[in-house]
Amino acid sequence: MITEPTYRRLLDLFDRDQVPYRLMDHPPEGRTVHASELRGHKLSAAAKCMVVTVTRTGATPSHRHVLAVIPGDRRVKLKQVARACGGGRAQFADQGTAEQLGGTVSGTITPFSFHTELEVLADPALFEEPELYFNAARLDRSVAIPAADYLRVAAPQVVTIT
Q1: 85 and 66 Cβ atoms separated by less than 8 Å
Q2: 93 DSSP 8-state letter
Q3: How far apart (Å, rounded) are the C-alpha atoms in residues 80 and 83?
Q4: How many angstroms separate the CA atoms of 21 and 11, rounded?
Q5: Cα within 13 Å of Cα(54), Cβ side
Q6: What's the pTM?
Q7: DSSP characters for 25-77?
Q8: Mean of the per-residue pLDDT values of the chain
Q9: Which DSSP letter does residue 138 get?
């Protein structure tokens, strides 16, 4: 998989945009609950990332992909994702699509998009924590960054999706 290039792009992005970050090594883990325990932070400070396919209905049906980023202690509401994207229906993307668009293996998708076909939606509750934690495109390494810097650099569409 293309995990190492995505890891490098992530760190290059932080360096270029002057985002202070901390790297944390830990046993391989891609599940948000367990990764949060290993990193030693509240689950609400985890940036949980899911690739969602939104289908638009009508005369010419179409679809698009979004990266839904929510706090680790919440669940994404697919109907709200569809509504935010002007679509009729939303579902989790299949693993192959998620990994291709996310540029890394499932469980390590970052809250940043490096793919032109992947738009980022972030739930406003994500910014209730001062610092966000997520896997750094690797199962064995995570990163922590200030939530304000995530908002500034990722420039997600902030919309309630939980």
Answers
A1: yes
A2: P
A3: 5
A4: 9
A5: 24
A6: 0.93
A7: E-S---SHHHHHHHHTS-GGGBEEEEEEEEEE-SSS-EEEEEEEEEETTS---
A8: 94
A9: S
Write out the DSSP string of 52-63. Answer: EEEEE-SSS-EE
- The string over 42-53, giving b where at least 16 C-beta atoms fall within 10 Å of a residue's C-beta and e elsewhere, is ebebbbbbbbbb
Tell me the CB-side half-sphere exposure of residue 58, using CA atoms within 13 A.
Answer: 8
Residue 76 amino acid letter: V
CATH number, domain containing residue 12: 3.90.960.10
How many distinct structural domains can be found in the chain? Answer: 1
Q: Cα angle vertex 41, ends 4, 66, to 5°? A: 50
pLDDT, position 60: 66
Residue 41, amino acid: H
- Cα(102)–Cα(85) distance, integer angstroms: 19
* Strand, coil or helix: 109: coil
Question: What is the domain extent for residue 130?
Answer: 3-158
Residue 42 reports pLDDT greater than 80: yes
